[in-house]
């Protein structure tokens, strides 16, 4: 008996996994054989649909066969695993996009790689023995094979819960979470398959009522409450402060798993949520991790403890559960020329104007990913892998997209006068500067009048985000322009949100940073008050970070040294986001408020405080969270 049976029976292409003694674990050869069959059947008129099932009662597919991955990784051969995952992900994407119905019958265990084979088709059938899970964090990986897409689409914060705990879903929970579509008693599966083979018509699948809601669905409120945080640290805090049976059982599950993997899984889901979610983006983020998992992650140690030595005592990195944001960024930064390629596509030619502290690493990431980038900066600076142009017009010549990263609106308007006439019709002018809304709209109109598309997309994330490819883009402009430059956003950042028409990106950025400036001031004031009231900073953090005072300024960027996740306060307030940049953004917010006749007293007060801090005190060159030591030494005026 071979590991897999592939044949045509009646109107159906039939794929049966035949390794019941190994719980039908997927080998590399099985993966390639399935892809070959799907390619052959796509345009075969004799095949109306595809049916995928498996032998044995215990499992549809328990995952990938990882013996070869471990052996090659231990020998220092990381290329084998990278090729395995790249080819597997290509197959997962083909199943997801397949033009004909794909019907899978998911008895017993469907886990890891089995999800990639069985849960991306058009009709996913579960029965009473079905147990579906994404257990990758238990072996030092992240939920992959496209599973992160389904986790990101799951109700509430169920995705984070399933991805971090490896919890198993029964039939009802699998349908609730979006991993399956149809409940059918397993006694009816054989007759259903025979009917599909005979007719080639999925309308003959007779679904029955889903069983009563499963235990995971019943805990949805608790899951949402504990897993809504932006990081693994947030989740630890809420679970550890709760003595309920659910919280304690969840902690026990999570403490078995790789902290680095869980932190990266949470970050992947955060990046995926939103209108730009696609299977391609999910697989790309997954591959960024798995391609590094042997050399830099916990994968080899996870396999050793679970499969090889079976001591169940993995020695994880960051075993205390505190995973620095930089470690997450390192695992998920773009892979450059080694990035996952699901299809061969012609790369865009890019002009990049403004190669300063932010622009240079952004341009370098694009060049590293294989884009043809020509850069220009009036100061003569350059970026790794980026061609040097003698002028902005030369950089823009024949480019499909021109990116600008400039200091202010006046300079943007001036540069646009040179760029727009030099750009070819249909190209996109993508401005990533933070400028006033009026300048963004004026430049967009100028570009559109010249037959170009224009997108204003200021960024959040600072120099570290520019270097690590983790920026967030807030974009305004036409839908067509946004879609054309989305592949560039995917290289330079973690998320891009289309906020509306021209100027909407700048509006979103200044509103966001007005909130940030005000909340950081309030957070710093509260810590200074707590000091004078004799309240320990750590105790204050433990309370506020899990209650109504929760904010990004407190939980992710705490201004108090030694409290919360690593932040600039732990490095002498060396800037991640400089106070003078916050001053600039608050100035833009108040300029916009005056133009729009909007009453923003808190924003105006934040502007006045940062203006005094930067121009009259010691704020210049310090992080914007250095407001805390300012308030520490002051009494009431």
From TrEMBL:
One of its GO terms (biological process) is L-valine catabolic process. Pathway: Amino-acid degradation; L-valine degradation. Residues 13-320 form the Enoyl-CoA hydratase/isomerase domain. Its EC number is 1.1.1.31. Belongs to the HIBADH-related family. Pfam families: ECH_2, NAD_binding_11, NAD_binding_2. This is 3-hydroxyisobutyrate dehydrogenase. Signal peptide: none annotated. Residues 349-500 form the 6-phosphogluconate dehydrogenase NADP-binding domain. InterPro entries: 3-OH-isobutyrate_DH-rel_CS, 6-PGluconate_DH-like_C_sf, 6PGD_dom2, 6PGDH_NADP-bd, ClpP/crotonase-like_dom_sf, ECH_dom, HIBADH, HIBADH-like_NADP-bd. Residues 503-628 form the 3-hydroxyisobutyrate dehydrogenase-like NAD-binding domain. GO terms for molecular function: (3S)-3-hydroxyacyl-CoA dehydrogenase (NAD+) activity; 3-hydroxyisobutyrate dehydrogenase activity; NAD binding; NADP binding.
């Amino acid at each position: 008996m071979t590991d897999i049976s592939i044949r045509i029976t009646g109107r159906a292409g039939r794929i049966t996994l035949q390794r019941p003694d190994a719980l039908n674990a997927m080998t590399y050869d099985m993966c390639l054989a399935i892809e070959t069959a799907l390619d052959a059947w796509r345009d075969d008129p004799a095949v109306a649909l595809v049916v995928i099932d498996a032998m044995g009662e215990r499992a549809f597919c328990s995952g990938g066969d990882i013996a070869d991955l471990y052996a090659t990784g231990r020998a220092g051969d990381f290329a084998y695993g990278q090729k395995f995952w790249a080819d597997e992900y290509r197959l997962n994407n083909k199943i997801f996009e397949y033009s004909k119905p794909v019907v899978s019958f998911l008895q017993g265990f469907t886990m890891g790689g089995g999800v990639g084979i069985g849960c991306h088709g058009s009709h996913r059938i579960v029965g009473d023995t079905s147990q579906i899970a994404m257990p990758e964090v238990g072996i030092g990986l992240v939920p992959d094979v496209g599973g992160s897409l389904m986790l990101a689409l799951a109700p509430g914060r169920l995705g984070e819960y399933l991805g971090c705990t490896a919890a198993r879903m029964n039939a009802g929970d699998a349908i609730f979470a979006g991993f399956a579509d149809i409940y059918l008693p397993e006694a009816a599966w054989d007759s259903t398959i025979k009917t599909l083979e005979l007719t080639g018509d999925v309308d003959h699948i007779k679904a029955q009522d889903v069983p009563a809601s499963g235990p995971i669905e019943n805990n949805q409120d608790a899951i949402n409450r504990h897993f809504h945080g932006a990081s693994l640290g947030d989740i630890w805090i809420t679970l550890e402060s709760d003595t309920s049976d659910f919280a304690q059982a969840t902690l026990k599950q999570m403490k078995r798993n790789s902290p680095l993997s869980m932190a990266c899984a949470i970050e992947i889901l955060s990046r995926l949520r939103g209108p730009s979610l696609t299977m391609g983006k999910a697989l790309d983020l997954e591959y960024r991790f798995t391609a590094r998992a042997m050399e830099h992650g916990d994968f080899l140690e996870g396999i050793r403890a679970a499969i090889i030595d079976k001591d169940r005592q993995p020695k994880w990195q960051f075993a205390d559960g505190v995973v620095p944001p930089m470690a997450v960024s390192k695992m998920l930064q773009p892979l450059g020329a080694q990035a996952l390629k699901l299809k061969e596509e012609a790369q865009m030619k890019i002009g990049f104007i403004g190669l300063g502290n932010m622009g240079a690493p952004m341009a370098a990431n694009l060049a590293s990913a294989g884009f043809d980038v020509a850069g220009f900066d009036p100061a003569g600076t350059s970026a790794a892998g980026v061609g040097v142009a003698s002028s902005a017009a030369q950089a823009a010549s024949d480019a499909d997209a021109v990116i600008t990263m400039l200091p202010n609106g006046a300079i943007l308007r001036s540069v646009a006068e040179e760029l727009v006439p030099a750009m070819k019709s249909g190209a996109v002018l993508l401005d990533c500067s933070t400028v006033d809304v009026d300048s963004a709209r004026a430049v967009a109109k100028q570009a559109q009048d010249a037959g170009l598309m224009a997108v204003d997309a200021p960024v959040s994330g600072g120099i570290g985000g520019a270097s690590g490819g983790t920026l967030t883009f807030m974009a305004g402009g036409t839908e067509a322009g946004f879609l054309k430059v989305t592949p560039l956003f995917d290289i330079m950042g973690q998320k891009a949100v289309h906020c509306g028409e021209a100027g909407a990106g700048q509006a979103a950025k200044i509103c966001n940073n007005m909130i940030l400036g005000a909340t950081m001031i309030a957070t710093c004031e509260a810590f200074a008050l707590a000091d004078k009231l004799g309240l320990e900073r750590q105790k204050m953090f433990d309370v506020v970070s899990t209650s109504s005072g929760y904010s990004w300024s407190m939980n992710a960027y705490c201004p108090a040294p030694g409290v919360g996740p690593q932040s600039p306060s732990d490095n002498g307030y060396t800037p991640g986001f400089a106070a003078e940049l916050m001053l600039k953004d608050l100035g833009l917010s108040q300029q916009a408020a005056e133009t729009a006749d909007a009453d923003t007293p808190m924003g105006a007060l934040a502007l006045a405080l940062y203006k005094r801090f930067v121009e009259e005190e010691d704020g210049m060159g310090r992080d914007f969270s250095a407001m805390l030591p300012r308030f520490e030494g002051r009494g009431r005026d």
